[in-house]
Design brief:
- By secondary structure, the chain is α/β, with parallel strands linked by helices.
- The protein has helices at 43-57, 74-81, 98-105, 131-134, 136-146, 164-175, 183-186, 192-222, 241-246, 254-265, and strands at 4-10, 14-21, 26-34, 65-72, 87-93, 109-111, 117-126, 151-156, 180-182, 229-232, 238-240, 272-277, 282-288, 291-292, 294-299, 302-309, 311-314, 320-325, 328-336.
- The chain has a six-stranded mixed beta sheet. Strands 6-7-5-8-9 form a five-stranded mixed beta sheet, with helices on both faces.
Length: 346
């Protein structure tokens, strides 16, 4: 029986599904549907619809499907459009390191494109081991919730050596019903400020990505496909939905990474400038000597502890909405109208 691999690309305007034969790398079939934005299932509705259309149109059997992976622009679009949660940071330190650590963990905001920002609130616990569980941190959590925190970061100096306190605090936050990431879950590197900053970006998209991951997983299971659904990473690899629930930042350039991988594998590009124009953003990559460059990601000029393909993303594309004031054009994008036709001019 022929095995089939399916790849799905979820863009701001369209969702594509492609079936390939892994033995020959031949394309078996392709389907495309508009990306769902108003359905209660969110983008999961478009994923399942494209899958069903692909399977029915080309008479494929569900038992033949051995692998499903999808790329998504959700994380990138959330950051481009400012659809992010307000983040509460619970910092912890003790002794002589407390003053410096407190300063490095207090990330007030992170600048996004178009004047938008990720807003962060800060709470601090200074003391002995296990403060999070014994209640000293609970008051800080409650205070930040009252101030509007929707997702949290648990941070402590040198937690990469001993993550105990970060894990205790993160568990305390989750017991109150809020998503939380501990900085050691994001990176094993020592730089406290960069590690906290990266965790804040991750936490800011956690609520939206958690909802999408849960809906997508349920929708795929309900469609009768038993193969696990994988998600494209920002460096071109894949990760499970379980990992997406903890570290959605790893999907930040998922969509562009899939496009670059296709250019390298199927178009056999060795040297060139690769542009991918979607509905919400345009992604630009340089391919040299048959490889795309890899770099440390940056947001608002601030370095993150995240390795990605060297993709430059601009919040301007085929569906970008112009904004007028008194009959004058004042801005274009990144908010997309999700129009059906995209015109690309070179």
């Amino acid at each position: 029986m022929q095995n089939i691999r399916i790849g799905i690309d979820v863009g701001g305007t369209f969702t594509h599904a492609v079936a390939i034969d892994p033995a020959t790398e031949d394309v078996i079939g392709h389907s495309v549907v508009p990306t769902a934005h108003t359905a209660k299932e969110g983008v999961a509705e478009g994923i399942v619809r494209s899958l069903r259309e692909l399977i029915n149109k080309f008479s494929l059997s569900l038992s033949q499907v051995t692998f499903i992976a999808h790329s998504t622009t959700q994380a990138t679009n959330a950051l481009l459009e400012g659809d992010v949660a307000k983040v509460g940071i619970i910092g912890m330190a003790k002794g002589i390191e407390a003053k410096r650590a407190k300063s490095e963990m207090n990330i007030e905001s992170i600048r996004l494109q178009g004047g938008k920002r990720i807003s962060a609130l800060f709470g601090f616990v200074e003391g002995k081991e296990g403060n999070g569980e014994r209640g000293l941190g609970i008051g800080e959590i409650d205070k930040l919730v009252k101030e509007g925190a929707e997702a949290f970061v648990s941070a402590e100096a040198f937690s990469v050596d001993d993550p105990t306190n970060e894990d205790i605090m993160a568990d305390a936050v989750r017991k109150k019903g809020f998503p939380c990431v501990a900085t050691h879950e994001i990176s094993g590197l020592y730089g406290l400020r960069a590690r906290t900053r990266t965790s804040v970006v991750n936490a800011s998209i956690l609520p939206k990505m958690l909802e999408a991951a849960n809906m997508t997983e349920k929708a795929v299971k309900d469609s009768g496909i038993s193969s696990p659904l994988m998600v494209m990473r920002s460096d071109g690899g894949v990760l499970s939905l379980g990992e997406v629930r903890k570290r959605p930042i790893l999907t930040m350039l998922s969509g562009p990474a899939a496009g670059v991988a296709a250019a390298l594998m199927y178009e056999k590009i060795t040297d060139g400038i690769f542009l991918e124009v979607g509905g919400t953003s345009t992604d630009i990559t340089v391919i040299k000597d048959g490889r795309a460059a890899v770099k440390s990601a940056e947001i608002g000029g601030q370095r993150l502890y995240l390795r990605t393909l060297d993709v430059r993303t601009v919040g301007l594309a085929g569906g970008s909405m112009p904004r007028l004031s008194d009959g004058k054009l004042i801005d274009v994008g990144p908010r997309s109208a999700h129009i059906a036709f995209i015109f690309v001019f070179f």
